């Protein structure tokens, strides 16, 4: 059995984790209890349940969560478990219901989770004591987060305070899910997140993604630049500042906020310019959808990046948004769920071509999945030792790992204090 406290305490700063953190089922179990059982998790968007009675099911480890819009339009979340004998209530990922009816013994719950019908339970049976068990849920301008803990982290309010002005102009509540893609990645969830938190690998592995991106937007080593490259880097820095000033004058908050490893609900955001025509994450860098999102009036609004610990990243452009969630399956496999959002009135084939909309990230996701698999293969080997992060291009990977270690140690300290 791995000594988790010792491994975490002696983790070498600026380096990857020891192999068991990516392979050991016992550590995976601890991850599910501490990280995915006690923190705010991104699981979907309000347009996943656009109308009263719409239900979406999300599985977090062994926990199945039903997220639904009730008859009054409020979004609620419940454990997807009948209060009678524990049968799963909703079996499809997406469905529409009048009430929630258990297939086993036909117990019936309304859309607020209250038990409204249960035959043959006797005169003393109190239906009001057997409603569905609620799960904490919050909407951040249309992004849905749940927390399985009895007492969720209180700093979601700070996240909301900072991020709402950045997200509001895109008005996700007035969008629809144009496409969803689920990809099983052959690696531990932390490898998926580490891969996302850097673009050191992008130039050699992402020919589609790098078309709309500027090379100097994701870190570089100043001492390695030629005179010409240094001029390009300085020009990029000036362009970034000019764009931030211009976007903020348009009412689009844009400047970097980085709270990745100094908050329980860690996050980071910044709006970055796009190359070429500068409109969208497409192969020709032009908008993918004719109808712009929300209050956007200019397609050349760059791409707003938003990352949350422990399991999400997002890109919001003038014409569409792409949101990503990572849900662990076991110690060596993870589900990457990607959704593409467009204006709710946009028409496929008229306002947008689906393949053009999803093409860049469909290719990029598969490329990243392959890279994660290469890492998973490597950490299984006796030849693996923790390697150093680049201080110039992998500083945000270090922040993710530092956040993870800190949250695990904090929980273990609380556990020892209680004992």
Automatic annotation (TrEMBL):
Residues 40-146 form the Rieske domain. Coiled coil: none annotated. PANTHER family: CHOLINE MONOOXYGENASE, CHLOROPLASTIC. It comes from Fulvimarina manganoxydans. Pfam families: Rieske, Ring_hydroxyl_A. The keyword Metal-binding applies. One of its GO terms (molecular function) is oxidoreductase activity. It comes from the Bacteria. This is Rieske 2Fe-2S family protein. InterPro entries: Rieske_2Fe-2S, Rieske_2Fe-2S_sf, Ring_hydroxy_dOase_asu_C_dom, Rng_hydr_dOase-A. Its cofactor is Fe cation. Keywords: 2Fe-2S, Iron, Iron-sulfur, Metal-binding, Oxidoreductase.
């Amino acid at each position: 059995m791995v000594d988790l406290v010792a491994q975490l305490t002696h983790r070498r700063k600026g380096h990857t984790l020891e192999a068991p953190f990516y392979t050991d089922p016992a550590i995976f179990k601890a991850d599910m209890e501490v990280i995915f059982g006690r923190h705010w998790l991104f699981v979907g968007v309000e347009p996943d349940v656009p109308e009263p009675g719409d239900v979406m099911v999300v599985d977090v480890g062994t926990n199945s969560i039903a997220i639904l819009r009730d008859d009054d339009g409020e979004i609620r979340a419940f454990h997807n478990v009948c209060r009678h004998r524990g049968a799963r209530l909703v079996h499809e990922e997406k469905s529409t219901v009048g009430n929630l009816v258990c297939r086993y013994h036909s117990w019936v719950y309304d859309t607020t989770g209250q038990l409204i019908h249960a035959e043959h339970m006797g005169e003393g049976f109190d239906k009001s004591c057997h409603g569905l068990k609620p799960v904490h849920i919050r909407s951040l301008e249309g992004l849905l987060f749940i927390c399985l803990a009895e007492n969720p982290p209180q700093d979601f309010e700070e996240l909301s305070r900072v991020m709402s002005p950045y997200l509001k102009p895109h008005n996700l509540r007035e969008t629809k899910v144009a496409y969803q893609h689920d990809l099983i990645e052959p690696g531990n969830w932390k490898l998926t997140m580490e891969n996302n938190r850097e673009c050191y690998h992008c130039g050699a592995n992402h020919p589609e993604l790098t078309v709309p991106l500027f090379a100097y937007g994701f870190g570089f080593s100043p001492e390695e630049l030629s005179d010409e490259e240094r001029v390009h880097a300085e020009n990029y820095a000036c362009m970034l500042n000019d764009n931030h000033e211009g976007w903020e004058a348009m009412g689009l908050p844009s400047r970097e906020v980085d709270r990745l490893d100094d908050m329980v609900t860690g996050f980071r955001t910044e709006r970055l310019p796009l190359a070429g025509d500068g409109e969208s994450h497409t192969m020709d860098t032009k908008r993918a959808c004719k109808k712009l999102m929300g209050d956007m009036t200019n397609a050349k609004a760059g791409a707003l990046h938003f990352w949350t610990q422990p399991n999400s990243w997002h890109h919001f452009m003038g014409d569409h948004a792409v949101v990503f969630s990572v849900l662990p399956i076991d110690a060596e496999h993870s589900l990457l769920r990607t959704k593409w959002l467009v204006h709710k009135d946009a028409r496929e084939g008229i306002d947008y071509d689906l393949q053009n909309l999803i093409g860049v990230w469909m290719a990029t996701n598969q490329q990243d999945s392959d890279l994660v698999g290469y890492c998973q293969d490597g950490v299984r080997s006796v030849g693996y030792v923790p390697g150093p992060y680049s201080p110039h291009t992998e500083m945000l990977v270090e922040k993710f790992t530092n956040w993870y270690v800190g949250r695990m140690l904090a929980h273990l300290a609380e556990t020892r204090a209680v004992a």
